[in-house]
Amino acid sequence: MSRSAREISSPAEWSTVVEGTKVCVVLFYSPSNAASLEAIHILEHHSQGLEGRGTVLELAKVNVDEVKAIKSAYSITKLPTTMLFRNGKEVDKVSGDNIPRLTQLIEKVKQAVDSETTKKASGSANSWKGAALPRGYVDITDQVELNRSELLNFDTETGGVRALLSSEKPSALSGGKATAKDWVESDTDDQLLLFMPFQSMLKLHTLQITSLPPTDDDDDEAPMRPKTIKLFVNKSHNLGFDEAEDLQATQDIELSESDWNKEGTASIPLRYVRFQNIDSLVLFVVNGDGDSEKVRIDRLRLIGESGSARDMGKLEKVGDLPGE
């Protein structure tokens, strides 16, 4: 059975869905327009065989009677109108009741999803790793919803959440001078608060943290590696610093110099039974290992297993249309 297209109800949700998805199909419709409803039916049934999920593929619809701002922004004059986006940019558009053109667009969707899925698999295989993965588990960092993540008390001249979760090798290990600060440093003191919601329910086994502060022993202002960390699961939003200080953590972590390997990565095993079926993680760096007022993190990797999709608007593999 095919899964329903996601209903977009506001311009803000439009931005999150269209800009946050590699391949996105959006159908503009009206409940009173029979051709619109037939087009939705065709798209939903043609979702069969599309393996992309999460940030790879989204099938969505917009009720033009309810969300007129989006209708106006994209000059929708005929119903149904179907648009295909890749990385937030329009690549095809079908206006009116045109089944042959809609079929062509669906084929483009399948090709785009195949292309993005192949790139994603290739990138995952070749991405930088700061430490070996535990046997039987995989890197599931790509399950973090970047658009909804929040990082507090970081120096805005350094990278943000995207830098922390990047699969690329940290510039500090590349031998040359960094053209951009692809790491995070704390701002007013040595604390950081990171909220990471997930696209699906996860089983988290290991947290890998890479920290590569400068090695100049004479620089008292050089940032430190994290020392004390508190982890919280299944929060609907980020915590405040006072709240995080007082709240009992899902797991408390104390790092020492011996925990860091030659790549500057600490591989932290988690109390696995406490990290089953989680939909978010809050990471609180309580303090750093030294006397500086700043702490630095270059990369974060989440290791475990991904589960069922949390958003019921995402697609699953479904059966063929009758007669195909």
From TrEMBL:
<dbReference type="InterPro" id="IPR013766">
    <property type="entry name" value="Thioredoxin_domain"/>
</dbReference>
<dbReference type="Pfam" id="PF06201">
    <property type="entry name" value="PITH"/>
</dbReference>
<protein>
    <submittedName>
        <fullName>WGS project CABT00000000 data, contig 2.6</fullName>
    </submittedName>
</protein>
<dbReference type="InterPro" id="IPR037047">
    <property type="entry name" value="PITH_dom_sf"/>
</dbReference>
<dbReference type="InterPro" id="IPR010400">
    <property type="entry name" value="PITH_dom"/>
</dbReference>
<dbReference type="InterPro" id="IPR008979">
    <property type="entry name" value="Galactose-bd-like_sf"/>
</dbReference>
<dbReference type="Pfam" id="PF00085">
    <property type="entry name" value="Thioredoxin"/>
</dbReference>
<keyword id="KW-1015">Disulfide bond</keyword>
<feature type="domain" description="PITH">
    <location>
        <begin position="129"/>
        <end position="322"/>
    </location>
</feature>
<comment type="similarity">
    <text>Belongs to the thioredoxin family.</text>
</comment>
<dbReference type="InterPro" id="IPR036249">
    <property type="entry name" value="Thioredoxin-like_sf"/>
</dbReference>
<dbReference type="GO" id="GO:0005737">
    <property type="term" value="C:cytoplasm"/>
</dbReference>
